[in-house]
Amino acid sequence: xGILLLxxxxxxxxxxxxxxxxxxxxxxxxxxxxxxRGILAAGKLPIIDVEYHHGDKISLSSLLGRMDANxxxxxxxxxxxxxxxxxxxxxxxxxxxxxxxxxxxxxxPKWHGNDGQFLESLEKDAKSGRFFAMGEFEARHYPSxxxxxxxxxxxxxxxxxxxxxxxxxxxxPFLLHHEAEDALLPELERMLAKYPKAKVVWCHVGRNRNRAxxxxxxDVSAVVEFLQKYPNLYFDIVQSKPGSKYPGTGxxxxxxxxxxxxxxxxLESDWKKLxxxxxxxxxxGTDVNTGRFPQYDRVITTFRQVILSKINQDAxxxxxxxxxxxxxxxxxxxx
Length: 335
Ligand SMILES: [Zn+2]
Known about the structure:
The protein is α/β, with parallel strands linked by helices and 335 residues long. Helices cover 41% and strands 14% of the residues. The N and C termini lie far apart (56 Å). Residues 136, 177, 203-204, 287 line the site of zinc ion (ZN).
């Protein structure tokens, strides 16, 4: 009897998924809300940055300085594999009201090496109720300006199945990195159809790195088609400088801008129409990491000058913070 009672007590002490010990959710939300309302009251459009790559080389006080200077209310702080998801909770404790606990990114050797323990602890973290979002998980990834990862972990491979399933089961969004080559689209479409409840933010839309192999995503039509077909799909927007070329092909990668014209690029009219026609489906992510940290101001300024100030106010507010708010809280932002 004593043993049964003991067993029961241990069972009762186990955390219930979604309600594990952690910061009080209502308190967290009111802190975030106060920050957003503070920026609105100052007459600025607040931004929630959904894609930040946190390593140990940039101090959080430096990040907070850039956020303050640029009207960025909240940052989904995705740590690298080495630091682990807990790092985001530690930084939240230092800057509540600004940092949104986010799990690790899937961009390191553990993710690419199909490390079982990595996925197991990711699932535990996502189901602990302590995190609002998951990081960016790489499927096909070309080498970029700050790394040389030339990898392809198919979107329908086992690790990705786990991410899509966790998102479906928890309602927590995740970011996906996948180069939009025609040949790589079927693996993504199979998953979007298989997991209609997963909340997928496909990163860097508006980019085309190779006109020869990215034929469908050469203009907005494929974006429209995907948005119509998959109600669970969201996008963050290409962060590279207008007119900048992808070194791998020498082609200008931002296809949402008019022909490069400094200092302020113009938004192509069909992209403006896209953002205004699907105002609930786009969010802002800086994609800033250690190497790109000096570009923080430029990235936010581009979003503000080239996109947010060029679309109607309702769509701009949704893209800047309301859509991200809904993704991370599950509820609509209340004006
Ligand atoms: Zn990415």
